[in-house]
Queue: 4 jobs
Job 1
Amino acid sequence: MVETKSSLAENFSVTRGGPLHRLLVRLSYAGDERQLVVGRTLLAVLITWLPLFVLSVVDRQAFGQQITIPFIRDFAANVRFLIALPILIMAESGINRRWRILVMEFFRSKLVADADVPLFEALLEKTNRLRDRALPEILLMVVAFLPSLFVIKTELLMSGISSWHVTGIESGELSRAGWWFNYVSAPFFRFLLLRWVWRLCLATFLLWLISRMRLYLVATHTDMAAGLGFLSQGQKAFSPIVFAGGTVVAAQVANAIAYHGATLSSMTYPMIAYGVIAIILLVAPLLVVTPLLVKVKRKALLEYGALVTTHNQQFDQRWIQKEQSPDEVILGHPDASSLTDLGSSFTVIRQMGIIPIDKQDLVILALAAALPMVPVVFLATPVDELVRLVLKMLG
C-alpha cells in the first residue's frame, strides 16, 4: 500500500502561528531545537520571576520573618513561574510532534481517500489561516490583563495577610514587586495559559472539519472507535498542560494551608474540581466526532445484523436442521469458523464507543491533574501520621 504524501500535513502545527510566534521568529527564538526551547524558557523566567525576586530583595521582602509571606517562601509565585511557566513553553515541541503524527495518520490508515486529499489539505489551510490571525491573540492579551485592572488582591486565598505583594496590610498598596507581578508577570502567565486553550480550540475546530468529510470508517475496527481511536493520542498530548495547571492550583492550596489556616479537607473540593474540569476540557473536543461515530455504529448494526442473521439461518439449516450431506462433519469445517468470526465482529460493533478515548488515556489525564496535589497532602499531614501510614503500608 502506497502512503499518500502531503507537505501540508507533514508540516502541520497547532502552535507555530500568531503575533507572538512571529515575534519569536524575528528574535530567532522560534523552533523545536533544544537550545531554542531553553532560550524561550529562560527569557520567560527572566521577564516574570527574576524581577520579582530582585525587587523583593531591594524592598527587604524576599527573606526573613518581618512579613508572613516573604517572596522566597511564596509557594504560588515560585511554582507558577519556575515550574508551570517552563512547562507551558517546553510542552510545545512534544504537542506539535504528536499532532503532526495524528494528522498524517489519516493518510497512513487510508481514512482519507486519494481523491479527497485536496479537500483535506484545504481544511488544514483553513485551520492554519485561523491560527495565524492576530485578532485571537490580541483578545487573549486583553482578557489576560483585565484581572490586573479590576481585581485588587493579586493572589487568591491570601486576604488579610502581610506578604511581599503589598507595602502593608493597612495601606493595601502594591509593593514594587507586587506591581510587577500584577501588571507584568501574572498577565504574561495568564496569556500563555489562555493561548493553550486557544490552541485546543484550533485542534477541536480541525477535528470538526475533518469529521464532516467522507472518511472510510469501519465499525469492526478493534480500537472500538471505527478507526478513530488514535485521536485520543492528540488529547493525551496535552497532559503536560494539565500538570502545569495542577501545580498552580496545588501551590495556591499550599499557601492557604501554610499561611491562612486552611485544612486539607477544606481544600479538597477545589483540588477535585480542577481535575474534573481539566479532564472535561480535554475530552470535550473529541465529542465533535461523536455524531459521525453514532451514524457509523447505527448503520453497521443494521448491516452486520442482517448479515449475521442470514448466515446464522444458513448455518442452522445446514447443521441443526440436518440439511447437509451425511458425510460432512462440523469439526474443522469453515462454517463454524465463519459463525464465530461474524459473531465476534458484531460484538465489536455493539461495544464500539462514540467517544474515541479509552480508560488508559483518561487515567493518564487524571494522574497529570492529581500528581501536583501529592506534595500538598504531605505538607498538610503531620509527620507522625505520615510515619504511621508508611509503617502500616509496609506492614
Job 2
Amino acid sequence: MPRTFPRPARPGRVEFHPKSVHPTALTGASRAPWLDLLLVRLVFALLCVSACAFFQPFGLGRLEATLLGVAFSVAVVLFEIRLKRASLKRLIGAALGSVLGIFGAFLMTLVLAQTSLSGGTRSFLGVAVLLVMAYIGLVVGANKGDMLNLQALGGLFGGDRASRRSVKVLDTSVIIDGRVADICEAQFLDGTLIIPQFVLRELQQVADSADGLRRQRGRRGLEVLQRIQQMPHLQVEVSEENFPHVHEVDLKLIELAKKHEAKIVTNDFNLNKVASVQGIDVLNVNELANALKPVVLPGETMRVFILREGKEYNQGVAYLDDGTMVVVDGARKMINRTIDITVTSVHQTTAGKMIFGRFDDRSASPAPPAVENGSRSPESRASEPRSADFPPSEVPKQS
C-alpha cells in the first residue's frame, strides 16, 4: 500500500547515524576497495591488448589487433560486472549448462564428420553448433539454477544458506512501534538486520512532520534504531538499494527481501498478506504478542480492575496488561475497583482476544486497587494505547 508523508522544512531535525554499520555489501561478499579493483582490471586489459598486438590473430595488422584486444578486454570486464549481481546458484547452473552444451556440440560434430559435406561447410556447422549449444546451456542452466539445493552438499554451501536465512528486513511500522527493540534485546532476533535507505527516509519524513504526535513517533523510531545498533549480538546494515522502478515502499521491501532471501519484520497487516502471497517469510510482531497472551480457561478466577461500564445491562469492562478486554457481568457498580471474577468464556476476535467473566456481589467484597494477575491501575492504563480497546457501543454481547 502506498504511504506518503509531508515533509516540511523544520529546524531541529533528528538524524539517524549508523555508527556500527559494517562496510560490507548486502550480498554477503566483501566489498573490495575500488582502487584495487580498478588496478586489477587495468592490468587485465593491458595483458589482453599486449597479447593481441603480439600474436596478431586472424591475419590482422598491429593496429587492428590492438583494437580487438581493447574490445575483448572491455567485453570481459562488463561480463564480470554483470556476474557480480548473479547468485551462486545461477552461476553454478550456468556453468553446468555450458559444460553440457559443449559436450552435446562435440557429439554432434562427430556426427557431422561422417557426412559428405565439404570441409568449409562442415567447419562452419561445427562452430555454429558449438556456439548454439553453449549459449542454450548457459541460459537454461542460469534460469534453472535456483532449483539447486546447495544445502544438501553441506560444507561451504550449507553455511552460506544458513547465513542467508538469518537476514531480516525491518519495516517502518515495526520501527515506530518500538517493541522490536525489546524482542531483539531478549535475543529472539539475531543475525543481520537490514535497514533500507528508503525506510530511513520515510522515518525521517515522519520525524519532520508538522503533526506533533507523528513527529514524536518518528523520533521514537530513530531512538529505537540507535538502541538496536548498540546490541552486540546483532549486525545492523543499511542498504543503499532503492529499486527506482518500484514506487511503493511496501513493494520495495518485498523486492529487497526476495533479492537477499530475507524475512520481513513488520506489524503491517496488508504488507504481511502481500508478502505471504509472494512466498516471503514474515515476522509479525502483533502475531507474536497475541501468541504470548496468557491462556485463560472457563472456571478460573482472576483479579481485574473495572475501568468503565459495558454495553449491556450491569456489565463492567476491564483490561489486562497486554490490552485484552475483559467483560464482566454484574460489575457495573464496581467501576474503579479491583475485584475477583470467574471466567465464563473466551472469544477470539479480529482485534484480539476477549474474556467474559461473572462477578458475584453477594459473596465477594471489593478489594483496594492493586496490581495483580495482569491488572493495572487506571493511571498506567490510560498512558498507553490498547490493541483490543473497544468503545462501549461495540462490546459484543456474551453468548
Job 3
Amino acid sequence: MDTYDCVIVGTGPAGLGAAFHLNDRKPGARILVLDKSKVSTGGLRNDCKMNFTFPVGFPEETWPRDTAQHYLALVREYLAAPFIATNNLEMYQKRAERLGVRLLSVRQCHLGTDGGLQLIRSLMSELERRGIHVSLGETAVDVDPERRCIVSDRREISYGDLILAPGRGGFRFLQGAMARMGVEYVDNVVDIGVRVETREERYPIVKDYYDPKFYFPDGVRTFCTNSGPAYVVKERYVTEHGSAYYSVNGHAYSRAHDRSGLVNFALLKSVALTEPLASGQELAEMLGCQAMLLGGGRPIMQRVGDFRLGKRSKRDTFCGDLFDFEPTLAGCTAGDISLAMPGKILRGIWRSMKLLDTIVPGVMHPGTIMYYPEIKLYANRPRFVDKYLRAAEHLYLIGDGAGTSRGITAAWASGIRAADGILMS
C-alpha cells in the first residue's frame, strides 16, 4: 500500500493551497494530490476571476473577518496577479443606497480563461519541481477511517492526514465520505438564478468596475460578471439517478483577445430550506431536470422584451429589430423561463433586475437575454471540531464543495487553513 503523510483529493484552488502551504512549512512531508479529472480542475480553469476583499467568497459562519483577512494576505503571496482599477464607484454606490441596494468595493484580479490555464500549467510544474506527487485521472471511491486509508479506482492509499477538496462536482462523494466518517452536516442551501447577457453599452459599469458586486433586498446578488472577450457556456451535471442537466455559466478571455462587445453576469437568489429541513442538492437537481424537460434537453433563453409581454421567446424571432445581437450560447431553447423557475425566486430576481436598471440604466433593454438555469451548489455545511476546518480525526474538509468558500481566493485560503491545522497537530 502506498503511504503518504497527507493525501489531498482535488486539484482546484483549495487542494493546491493546502499542498503548497504544507510543502512550504514542512518540505520533507510526503504529499499526494489526486483528481478524477485528467487535468487540474476548479475555478482556476473557469475565467480565473479573483476577489481579495472580505466577505466576498467567504461564508461568514465559517470565516471571522480577522481570520479571513489573515489568510487573504497569504493567498496573495501565491496568486500575485495585478489588481484591476475601479472608477466612479461612489456614483454607483449612491444610486444603489437610495434603493436599499449595496454595492461592495472589491479588489479584483482577472486572468481570463486563457490566463487561468497558463497559471495552472505553472502551478502544476511547480508541484512537480517540489517533489509533490500528483495523480490525475484517478478517482477517489471510498474512505476507510479505521485503517486511515483511501480507496481509489486504482489502489489503496494510506494517509497520515486526509484533506477532501472535491469542489462542487464532488458533492456526492463528499457526502458519502462524511457519512462513513460520522461527520454531521446539513445540505439545505442552494443558489438559483439566471445569467444575463447584453451589450456592453447597456451595462457600462463594467468599464469602471470589472465584476460589480450588487446585493439586493430579496437575497439576490450579482455574481461572476464577464466583459470584453466574454461568452456564456453550459456545464453538464448528472444526478444520483443518472439523469443529466445543464447549468449555464460565464467566461471571458484575457484582454489580449478581441472584445465581443457583450457582457454577461449572473443574478442568483440564495435559498435556505428550513422547515421541513430538505436537501438543497436534490432541489437543484429537480429544477435542473425540469428546465431540461421544458427546454428539450437544453437550457432556456428568453429576451427581456418577450418576458415583459408575458410571452415566450421563439427561435424565428429571437434575433432582429430590437433583439440586436446573437446569443453567445446558441445551443439553447428559446422559450419561457417563468414555466421552469419557481415563482418566488423569479419574482425576487425580476425585482432586482428592475432595481439594477435604475442604478445602471440600459440593462433591461428588450434585447437583453436571460439564460436559465444557473445553479450553484454550496450546500454542504459540515460540523467542524476546530478552527482549522477539521471535521474528524485526521480529516479536513475544504473548498466550495464543503461549504467553506465561494470562489478561488477563499478556496485557496481554506486550503492554507487546513494545512495549518495539520502542522499544529
Job 4
Amino acid sequence: MIKKLFQTKILKFLLGGGLATVLNIALIYLIIEKLGFNTALLRNIANVISIEISLILGFFIYRTWVWTGGNWTIKEVLLRQLPLYHVSAGLAVISRIFLIFPILDWLKVNYAINTIIGALVSALINYFISDRFVFKTPKQKKSLTYYPEALAPALLENSSLIGNQLRAIETSKSIKTLSIVIPAYNEEDCIVQTVRTISTVLEQENIDYEILVVNDNSKDNTEQLLQQLNSQNSKLRYINNYYPNGFGFAVRCGLENFTKDAVAVVMADSSDAPEDIVSYYHKLQEGYDCVFGSRFIRGGKVIDYPTHKLIVNRLANLFIKILFGFKFNDTTNAFKIYRKEVIEGISPLVSHHFNLTVEMPLKAIVRGYSYTTIPITWRNRTTGVSKLKLKEMGSRYLFIVLFIWLEKHLSRGDYHLSKNKLLANQRLKSNG
C-alpha cells in the first residue's frame, strides 16, 4: 500500500515541491550568509535568485518524475512549458496571498492552520494548472477492477454473465415515487406556503410523492402548523428531529425516514422553485443516480442573493472545482435529488450543520454515482431569518471537503460504486 501511495502523481508533485522549497531556503541562506548579500537590496536580489532557481529545479523534477514522457524539444520545454510553469506558480502564490489567506482570516481560522491550508491549496492550484495546461498529460485510462483472489478465475470466465447482470441492474432505473425532505427550524412564516406550493405542483404533474418535514425542535408555531397541514394532506408527514439541533442533523433524520424511490432535499423558506423538483424527477428517469441543480449556468437564476454571500459562495465553489477537478459549479447548494440507493451508498453521513450540503454531492461523485446538472432558480427568503452563519461554517466546510478529498486519493476506491456493483453481481450469481 505504501509503495502504491508513493507512486501517485499528486503525492509525487507534493514531494517534488517540498524538495524545491528546501532548495529555496538553502540557497537564500547561502547567498545572504556566505556570499554577503546582506543589505536590503541584496537580500531582495538573493530572494529572487533563490526563487527562480528553485522554480526551475521544481519544473524539471515534475517534468522527469511526475509528468514523464511527452515532447522534450528545446522549443517545447524552454519556450512554452517553462514560461507557462512560471505563470502557474505565480498564480498559485498570488491566490494564496490575496485570496485564500484573507478569506480564512475573515472566517477566523487560526493563522497556523490558515498557513498550512494556504500552502496546500496553492500547491493544488499549481498542480491543476500544470496538469491541464503546462504539461498537457493525456487522459488517464479508467482504472481496472481487481477481483478478490479466490473469485477472480470464476468471475473472469463468466464475464459475459456479469455483463448481463450489470445491464440488468442498470436498466431498472425507473423512478415511480418521490420523497421531499424539508428541514425546518422556526419556519412558521413560510412552511405552510412551501408545503402547499410543492404539493400543488407535484399533483398537477401526477407525481406520486410524500413530503417529510423534519421539525428541528422549533421554538415557534412550526410544529402546530405542521399538525394542521398533516390533517389536510395525507401525503405530508412530519417528525421531530431526534438528533441534536442542526441543519445537518435534521436532514440526516429525514434521510433515515423517507420511504420513496428517490429523495430531494428542499429548503423550508421557499427559496427553491417547485418546478425544478419536477425537472429533477424527470431527469432521473433518464437513468442518472443524482441530479444536481446549478444557479450559475446558462438558464440558472438567483434573485436577491446577498452580495457578500454570493462572493464567498463563488470562491468556495471555485476552490472545490479546482480541488476535485470537475466542472460542477454549485456544490454548496442543498437543493439536489438522489436515488434511494445513493443515500445508502454515501452513508454514514457525518456533517452536523450546513456542511452536509457539500458532503452529500461530493461523496456521491467520489464514490462513482452518475450525475447530471440542470439550471435552477433560487430566490432569497422574504420572511424569517437565514440560519446559515458564514463565520461559523468556514472551518466546517473546509473539514468535510478535505475529508472527502482524502477519501478520493487515499482510500484506493474502497467505497467506490464499481466495487459495490461487483458485489451485487456476485450475489446475483450465487442466487441464480
